[in-house]
């Protein structure tokens, strides 16, 4: 547990080495932990994140991010199988088939669910007191029908409101807290002055910490390698294309004597501007991404045309502007899907090569791939 | 298979049956209510599982055009993959030695886990179906349909009060600013913390979560760039078109090198000083956005049924691909050594075929092995 805390703090950028040097049994260092806690309050916004993460869900929630779900560590499986265990490859195939079946059933269920959600949203439009939402969710609709079942939900809502009010109180008392933390630092500085010179030497010796034992770093490196290969391949492709285009361009220019310098430079400039516009979106890809939510979002049906049954004209609050649109998410998902498909195909291609080589070793048999 | 796996298989079976039951009941109700006039099952009644045929007939009222249309639409689509997965299970083998090594247990375990996860999904979605199904079940005739009365419904007063108090509290928290002296004291504190960080690492960005976030952002760049590249015409006819094409491609080239540079920087950051590393270092996925934004209401707006369906379908597709890639990696690590290690016997043709199909075709198609006999 202690190691996990140290790792998590390091992960989020808490660089204070004194924390990392605390003993692993957790027997000392409560002041360091206090400092770390204070740091967390501000830097990743601990309180805000906790509040947001544990938000009471009254709507139809779904997640928006495209992050991979964590699959279990594959190293656990291999050590368990004893030398006598043999698994029939047909078992694998059968499992695979069942997995596909599950996926298909899941898809069908999801689609059913979409239809029902849409119906409820559509039919209850205009009823919700909250203009931003405009309609009820499944939970709320059921709540109307059977209020007795939802006592717990009410309690949760009320306790959350209390928490939020406590948060507001905290905000008022904040100056006191930070001043207190300063005094803690002062105390530590007084006491620790003697030990600091020793610490520097200890640190220098500790620096060559093995990176290879860190699975996170390995995972990152693997992803970076793959990304780098992708980009380099793309770079080569572009290199060729650009060379081709340039050659074609100079050919065309050479044969067109009437290419008046002045006339063309005006059009050239216009073209350059339009290309800059077009590629503006592309260059922003490499810039830091806009804030993506990882948590759950509430699904809300909003028609594109403000003139309609739903009085969208009224809810011109800031909230409306901050909602994520499904169309955006769909575009991003499509891109993600394309990347993943390519990755899968690359892996399969690798397998094909290796298997072809193996097939070459099969005596007296020719393998014809589908 | 070991008893534990049998147990897991049992779970799997049950989950599958449950899912199939839902489908069966969906299939049943349109067929039975179709005979009756006024398909109340459809028009306005949000029910799927719960609706039995008897109730369907008792809620007969004038049929709306919407009723019939929704009824027809509610028949579950023929899922494409179903027909494909069947042949898999019926493959027969020619070779004698069709047993894979013990290493394929791991692959099996991975598959099982993925299957269990999917059945978890199913459980969640069928729970939702329960709620919506129950709606149809207990509506008595005369109350009117949801379609008619939906916009007039009112949430019960206690809930409304609690809800509005709650959303007002959220709004106040969101708009609440840190007071000036608190902010000053806080900044001072943070600076002092920073100065105690040892010198070499002080000026570097040590946010590993940021590294991960940036990497994630870069992951889709090749795909997007490829889209642009493919959109370029192969042979533009006009002079201007040629020039445009050239500029676009050059611009893309610059972007790619920028990305590669960025990647290099990230790599350096990553291999910098490593702190203590816990073997169970699962990254704690925090949000990278502004604290105040965290408290805003997270809404996802869709504008039509089709959009919603596309959204769900794509989410599932992405999740499936993630799983498939993970499975592929595990299978490669486990199955290829089996074939590569030993000298292939005469009878392992079947094994080879099976492994080839799993690894290269996703288990969908099979290679053909032909005996290489010269006709004398």
From TrEMBL, chain A:
It comes from Vidua macroura. Keywords: Coiled coil. PANTHER family: TUBULIN EPSILON AND DELTA COMPLEX PROTEIN 1. Residues 217-244 form a coiled coil. The keyword Coiled coil applies. Residues 13-186 form the Tubulin epsilon and delta complex protein domain. This is TEDC1 protein. InterPro entries: TEDC1, TEDC1_dom.
UniProtKB/TrEMBL annotation, chain B:
This is TEDC2 protein. Residues 29-104, 122-147 are annotated as: Disordered. It comes from Vidua macroura. It holds the Pfam family DUF4693. Residues 80-95 have a biased composition (Polar residues). InterPro entries: DUF4693.
């Amino acid at each position: 547990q202690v190691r996990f805390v140290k790792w998590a703090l390091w992960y989020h950028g808490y660089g204070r080495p004194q924390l990392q040097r605390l003993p692993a049994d957790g027997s000392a260092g409560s002041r360091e932990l206090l400092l770390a806690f204070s740091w967390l309050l501000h830097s990743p916004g601990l309180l805000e994140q906790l509040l947001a993460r544990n938000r009471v869900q009254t709507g139809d929630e779904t997640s928006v991010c495209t992050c991979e779900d964590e699959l279990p560590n594959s190293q656990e499986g291999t050590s368990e199988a004893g030398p006598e265990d043999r698994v029939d490859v047909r078992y694998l195939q059968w499992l695979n088939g069942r997995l596909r079946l599950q996926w298909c059933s899941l898809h069908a269920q999801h689609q059913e669910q979409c239809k029902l959600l849409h119906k409820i949203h559509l039919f209850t439009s205009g009823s919700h007191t909250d203009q931003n939402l405009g309609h009820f969710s499944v939970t709320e609709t059921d709540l109307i029908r059977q209020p007795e079942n939802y006592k717990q939900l009410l309690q949760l809502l009320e306790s959350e409101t209390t928490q939020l009010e406590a948060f507001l109180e905290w905000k008022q008392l904040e100056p006191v807290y930070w001043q207190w933390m300063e005094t803690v630092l002062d105390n530590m500085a007084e006491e620790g002055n003697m030990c600091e010179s020793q610490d520097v030497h200890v640190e220098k010796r500790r620096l060559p910490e093995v990176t290879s034992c860190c699975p996170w770093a390995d995972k990152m490196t693997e992803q970076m390698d793959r990304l780098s290969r992708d980009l380099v391949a793309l770079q080569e492709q572009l290199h060729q294309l650009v060379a081709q285009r340039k050659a074609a361009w100079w050919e065309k220019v050479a044969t067109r004597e009437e290419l008046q310098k002045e006339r063309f430079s005006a059009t050239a400039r216009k073209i350059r501007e339009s290309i800059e516009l077009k590629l503006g979106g592309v260059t922003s890809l490499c810039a830091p991404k806009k804030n993506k939510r990882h948590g759950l979002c509430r699904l809300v049906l909003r028609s594109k045309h403000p003139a309609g049954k739903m009085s969208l004209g009224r809810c011109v609050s800031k909230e409306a502007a901050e909602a994520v649109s499904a169309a955006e998410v769909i575009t991003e998902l499509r891109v993600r899907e394309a990347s993943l498909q390519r990755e899968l195909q690359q892996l399969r291609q690798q397998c094909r090569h290796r298997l072809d080589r193996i097939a070459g070793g099969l005596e007296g048999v020719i393998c014809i791939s589908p | 298979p070991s008893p534990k796996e049998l147990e897991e298989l049992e779970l799997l079976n049950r989950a599958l049956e449950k899912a199939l039951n839902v489908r069966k009941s969906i299939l049943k109700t349109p067929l039975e209510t179709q005979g009756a006039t006024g398909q109340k099952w459809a028009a306005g009644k949000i029910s799927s599982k719960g609706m039995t045929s008897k109730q369907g007939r008792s809620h007969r009222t004038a049929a709306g055009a919407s009723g019939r249309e929704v009824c027809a639409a509610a028949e579950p689509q023929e899922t494409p993959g179903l027909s494909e997965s069947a042949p898999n299970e019926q493959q027969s083998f020619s070779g004698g030695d069709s047993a894979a090594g013990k290493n394929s247990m791991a692959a099996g375990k991975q598959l099982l886990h993925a299957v269990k996860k999917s059945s978890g999904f199913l459980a969640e979605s069928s729970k939702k179906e329960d709620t919506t199904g129950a709606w149809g079940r207990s509506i008595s005739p005369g109350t009117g349909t949801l379609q008619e009365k939906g916009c007039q419904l009112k949430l019960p007063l206690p809930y409304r009060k609690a809800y509005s108090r709650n959303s007002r509290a959220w709004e106040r928290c969101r708009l609440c600013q840190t007071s000036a002296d608190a902010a000053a004291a806080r900044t001072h504190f943070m600076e002092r913390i920073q100065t105690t960080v040892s010198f070499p690492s002080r000026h570097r960005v040590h946010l590993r979560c940021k590294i991960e976030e940036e990497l994630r952002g870069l992951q889709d760049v090749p795909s997007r760039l490829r889209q642009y590249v493919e959109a370029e015409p192969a042979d533009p006819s006009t002079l201007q078109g040629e020039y445009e094409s050239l500029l676009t491609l050059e611009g893309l080239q610059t972007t790619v090198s920028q990305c590669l540079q960025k990647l290099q920087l990230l790599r350096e950051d990553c291999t910098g000083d490593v702190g203590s590393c816990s073997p169970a270092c699962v990254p704690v996925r925090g949000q990278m956005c502004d604290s105040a934004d965290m408290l805003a209401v997270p809404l996802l707006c869709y504008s039509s049924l089709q959009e919603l369906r596309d959204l769900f379908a794509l989410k599932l597709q992405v999740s499936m691909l993630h799983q498939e890639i993970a499975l592929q990696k595990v299978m490669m690590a486990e199955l290829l050594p089996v074939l590569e290690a030993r000298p292939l016997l005469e009878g392992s043709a079947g094994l080879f075929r099976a492994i080839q199909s799993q690894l290269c075709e996703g288990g969908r198609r099979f290679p053909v092995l032909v005996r290489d006999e010269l006709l004398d």
